[in-house]
Amino acid sequence: MLTEYLPTHSICSLPFVTSFCQGFGKNLYRNGKVEAAGSWLNLSAQEIQPLFTDQRAGGAARSWVKTYGCSEDAWNGGCSLVIEGLIPAATSNLTVSLFRLHLDNPPARIFLSFIYKLEGGVSLTPELMTCAPSQHQSDTSSTLEVLKPSLLPEDDAFVQQFVQSCDSWSPGGWTARFFQVEMKDCALREIQVSVAHGQENDQDAQFKCRIGEIRVLDAAKLRAELNPVENPTVSNYLWRKQPKGTDTSLSDLSLSATLQWAYPGRLASYFNIYCRGLCSHKTKEVESSETVLIGRTSANVYRAVDLKLREPPVGRCCPVEFLVQPVSEAGFPTPLSACGKVIVNCTQAQ
């Protein structure tokens, strides 16, 4: 009786960002590339999941579609969303609902970032489902209307502003598309994708789409500034020095330590942890001045383990600098120059 009044898996505010990570994976990905090879598990890294489906679409006897999480490839984290199905020749397209929303007062202009891969000669486009504000209590499928976002060119001012606010990246096999939509006197109720035939639709089209990331943002807030973390500290040091010749790594000295800091709740989606002063990282030699990403955490604490350092000369000090970078809910990182920093000095006793 209450089904239509209780939105399922609804998103109630913007920004909305998900890479479909389920908190585990066969590899850890960052911007479409493997950052750390090998299986991992961290349920605090799980992101919002879609409405999974496995059904026949549009009433056509041969038409079907299903969605599922897949760890064979990802944009960020360990998983991506795969949409698989078949569009009969007599059907122009099919739509797949991904997320329910409950935004009665959305911003006047919405910016969408959409990263995906395609197989099967089809096209993939995000769509929004809306209803009139007066119908927000009875937004059944019969009262919803499709709102098709407008594709933005790469040189559009909004796109340039968005790209400058993100980490630098190259698609590398992924397709990145950017859209905007004007919201006028309507409530936002659903995010869906439309899968359509290519130029020729005289045959059935079996397809496989992999969505890496979706961002739905207020176009007026594409460059939100975050404050640096406060009171970063380092504690629980553990120094280890391997006897010469017993370790195949590039350094005989390693450091483990716990970083902690203060930061207002719900302002940051997660924190990137960087380090300067390393000798090597993940068996790769690095310059001591190089800023190296060593990890990521969703909490205000991080344990760095077995960081490889250069052994300082006797009587001299070698600094090891940690940087904590907040990343906003919209996915925008704080510039490294404005990140919270804390330094640990490593000194060789005489």
From TrEMBL:
One of its GO terms (molecular function) is mannosyl-glycoprotein endo-beta-N-acetylglucosaminidase activity. Transmembrane segments: none annotated. It comes from the Eukaryota. Residues 223-345 form the Cytosolic endo-beta-N-acetylglucosaminidase C-terminal domain. Coiled coil: none annotated. This is Cytosolic endo-beta-N-acetylglucosaminidase C-terminal domain-containing protein.
